[in-house]
Amino acid sequence: MPIRLIATDLDGTLLRSDLSVSPRTRTTLDAARRAGLHVVPVTARQPRGVRRIAEAAGFTGWALCGNGAHGVHLGTGETLFAAHVESDVQRALAVALAARVPGTLFVSVREGGEVFVAQAGYAQLAHFEDHKREPADMGAHDLDAVLAEPSLKFIVRHPTLTPRDLLPELRALGLPGFAVTHSGAPFLEVLAEGVSKAWGLTRLCAHLGVQREEVLAFGDAPNDAEMLAWAGRGVAMANADPEARDAAGEMTASNDDDGVARVIEALLA
């Protein structure tokens, strides 16, 4: 089947390390759109983080945000779907993990990704690029306020443990009702049960009438693995995490060497 939809991660994949869109990449994305292909960013970012680079990349249509939890149209603002971690699920997780790993901090991202409710102490750990948000604007809430409402994304972070260190501790709790991944950022990302980039892409493709075999996907991080395995053609970047490389059917050049553009150019030729 010919490719009809290009699904691309952003950070570490489409974007260069300085978070820019190269001229070659922009030219290639425009050529794909002129050829009638859907070009969809599929990212851990919230819509506000996608909008920061949307003009540079020419994104005006559908975007899958929050690791596939939130399907939103960048042009109209229409929400196709939004999957939330339920309050009781995140409360059970937070209470148990804080007891098991003291010092763990939590954030609830909700209301379309616009509202960011951070536990007191979190802002002191954070940098702007972690969430495309100024730490000074994150607030300092008690845990009950963080847990008060369902989350599009529930963030779990420790001052000294890496996400790879923290992940087995979280899984050892044996709690149900959520999915967990990480994207190369310094925190774990907890999603509604069953949610992944592949989950969100399945729903968008059904809406657009696109078959799985007609999807070309690009990624570099563990949170891209399900999407790379699911797509008819999954391509990992040269700079990809082993988990993403193992899930993909092929490799391309790095994000700093126009890896996405190279594959699309060959496709369009």
TrEMBL record:
GO cellular component labels: cytosol
GO MF terms held by the record: magnesium ion binding; phosphatase activity
Record's keyword terms, sorted: Hydrolase
Organism superkingdom: Bacteria
Pfam families xrefs: Hydrolase_3 (PF08282)
Keyword Hydrolase attached: yes
InterPro entries: Cof (IPR000150), HAD-like_sf (IPR036412), HAD-SF_hydro_IIB (IPR006379), HAD_sf (IPR023214)
Name of protein: Hydrolase
Record organism: Deinococcus metalli
Organism lineage: Bacteria, Thermotogati, Deinococcota, Deinococci, Deinococcales
